[in-house]
Design goal:
Length: 408
């Protein structure tokens, strides 16, 4: 059983990391733990649990900025800023349900460390684009700060961008500052039924290239759609386009979009409530949540050119059982694999190599994650750079060694 250390504040974090560095102990960094099973199945001596580092330390709605301790639950952040008509525009994904851990388990620090974003990424950017400032502890046990409370901050290196997506392998974040934005007054979603994958991608590309200011574009094939759209899908695929803003603007943009996409069939407008539920399901990849009583099939997160998404899926599906969900206009593909001991890794890697892009094995048993590359394999030059960055932050390799890549 791995011992768990629960620091009370940033000073405690620094002391723990400094002690671990001196003793040669490795540390796994977690918040509430909703993303704990993402990454290689490495072994660590101790767990550094940051879930006690909670609380909003600064919120200035007029300045669109919020600072909080890294372990603060996302639900707490969203409730606070929602009361002021604001939101985290990058629409952070809730990973907990994909691992049977329950909903609402994410923390602000965890979201930034994983750089996760939902359907609105095509309009508002990723989590890293909203990450303004950080206080953290390096693998040396040294506390450092980067960034500030404004978007245009050019003092020194932008270490926020380095830490975003580092999965706790470079530093333990203790306090973070993010940009918040006004929430749209309302939303509408237009749905087309029955499009095949390639036609759906063309329709989404047309919508995203139009002046309609689409904030969500997703395609759910027929075997996946009923789990989101219910009986309305009737076994047909669902292609969804979201419009957000004020009512009159949405009405005008909807009319223009309907005219543009007329060649693809009739567009159905769903209620605001149904729209919100649909996009939450797309954001959290609800169709691929594990069923009760059975093992969770492997799940891949694939990023590629939107026009190549269906090709990636077709290549993998020709070799093994696969079900897919397309987000970001086809540029993000979630693919669940069945019947392959290696999670279909060789077929996924071969398809992304042929079509361009990269793939992450988001969910699989520990034995599979220990035997295949979880994150996209790096070219030698990039791998050397990754090692140098790791050595700069964590020269003794005590923070999550091996979580992303063997030897780092």
């Amino acid at each position: 059983m791995v011992d768990t250390l629960r620091p009370r504040d940033a000073k405690d974090v620094a002391q723990v990391v400094e002690w671990a560095a001196g003793e040669g102990k490795t540390l796994e960094i977690v918040g509430i733990g909703s993303k704990r099973r993402i990454g290689r199945a490495a072994q660590w001596d101790l767990t550094l649990d940051l879930s006690s580092l909670t609380g909003v330390t600064l919120y200035e709605p007029e300045e669109l900025v919020l600072s909080a301790r890294a372990g603060t639950p996302i639900t707490e952040i969203e409730a606070l800023i929602g009361g002021k008509g604001q939101e985290l525009a990058f629409e952070p994904m809730d990973c907990g349900p994909l691992f049977g851990a329950g909903a609402n388990k994410g923390t602000l620090g965890g979201v930034l460390a994983a750089n996760v974003a939902g359907p609105r990424r095509i309009k508002s950017g990723a989590a890293r684009d909203h990450f303004l400032g950080v206080s953290a502890v390096s693998g040396r046990g040294e506390t450092f700060k980067s960034g500030g409370r404004v978007v245009k901050n050019v003092t020194g290196y932008d270490l926020c961008k380095v830490l975003a997506g580092s999965w706790g392998t470079l530093a333990a974040m203790t306090d973070v500052t993010v940009k918040v934005l006004p929430r749209a007054e309302t939303e509408q979603t237009l749905i087309a039924f029955g499009l095949d994958d390639r036609t759906a991608v063309k329709a989404m590309a047309a919508a995203l290239g139009s002046p309609a200011d689409v904030s969500g574009a997703a395609h759910l094939p027929g075997d996946v759609a009923p789990q989101v759209a219910g009986a309305a899908a009737a076994g047909r695929s669902v292609t969804a386009l979201r419009l957000e803003g004020v009512g009159p603007s949405i009405s005008a943009r909807r009319v223009a979009l309907e005219a543009l996409l007329k060649p693809y069939g009739e567009l159905i407008v769903v209620s605001e409530r149904a729209s919100h539920a649909l996009w939450q399901a797309v954001r959290d990849v609800t169709p691929f949540e594990p069923t009760a009583g059975g093992p969770a099939p492997p799940l891949w997160r694939i990023s590629t050119e939107p026009t190549r998404g269906p090709e990636v899926v077709a290549q993998v599906a020709a070799q093994c059982g696969a079900a897919a969900l397309y987000d970001w206009g086809g540029g993000l593909v979630w693919m669940q694999i069945a019947g392959r001991a290696d999670a279909g890794a060789r077929f996924v890697r071969r398809a992304t190599a042929a079509c361009g892009g990269h793939a992450t094995l988001y969910r699989a048993d520990a034995a599979v994650r220990a035997s295949v590359d979880v994150f996209e394999p790096q070219a030698p030059a990039l791998a050397a750079l990754t090692r140098r960055v790791k050595e700069g932050f964590d020269p003794k390799g005590i923070l999550g060694p091996g979580r992303m890549y063997a030897g780092t």
